[in-house]
Design brief:
- 25% of the residues lie in helices and 24% in strands.
- It has 170 residues and is an alpha/beta fold.
- It has a domain at 1-8 and 40-127: Glutaredoxin (3-Layer(aba) Sandwich), CATH 3.40.30.10.
- A hairpin with a 2-residue loop joins strand 1 (14-18) and strand 2 (21-24).
- The protein is globular.
- The N and C termini lie far apart (46 Å).
Length: 170
């Protein structure tokens, strides 16, 4: 299986964010979703990538997008990582059955038993609008995500007003 392309319906899933809380993709209908598959908690490239996204959460929110990060690591590893690094977005565990969601999106690495480093932008109707597979050791950054979100219909983007509240000229 290969990376799911733009125009494909995003496979539905429900994954644990904590031992007793799950997150389902369908909860975000009407909102854009960024799926960030990453190989492993605690790896240097993954930590840098997730830290960058954590810093951009306000920009993602402005673009009406929720970030969901997914790896095959367990919920306890995710909880420790999120607590130490102060991440403010869900780290979802694709642990059991291992890599089921990564397989559905075409990004599971059978040889190494982990999710490849891949990004998806899903629109409010559940359709993949952009996808990208990054080399394992390369932080893909956020420019592609932001560009893909900005290309979605403008009614999905929350406009910010100037500090004085004045309306901008059309």
């Amino acid at each position: 299986m290969s990376l799911l392309a733009a125009g494909t319906a995003a496979p539905e899933f429900t994954l644990h964010a904590t031992p007793d809380q799950s997150v389902a993709l369908k909860e975000f209908r009407g909102r854009n979703v960024i799926l960030a598959f990453y190989p492993a908690d605690w790896s240097p490239v993954c930590s840098d990538q997730l830290a960058l996204y954590n810093e951009l959460l306000d920009e993602f929110a402005r673009l009406n997008a929720q970030l969901l990060a997914i790896s095959v690591d367990g919920v306890w590893s995710h909880a420790a990582l999120a607590r130490e690094r102060k991440y403010h977005f869900p780290l979802l565990s694709d642990f059991e059955p291992k890599g089921r969601v990564a397989r559905a999106y075409g990004v599971y690495d059978e040889q190494h038993g982990l999710a490849q480093r891949a990004l998806f932008v899903i629109d409010g109707e559940g359709v993949i609008r952009w996808s990208y597979l990054s080399p394992m050791g390369v932080n893909p950054g956020a420019a592609g995500i932001v560009k893909a979100l900005e290309a979605l219909p403008s009614n999905n983007i929350q406009k910010t007003l100037p500090a004085d509240g004045a309306q901008e000229a059309p």
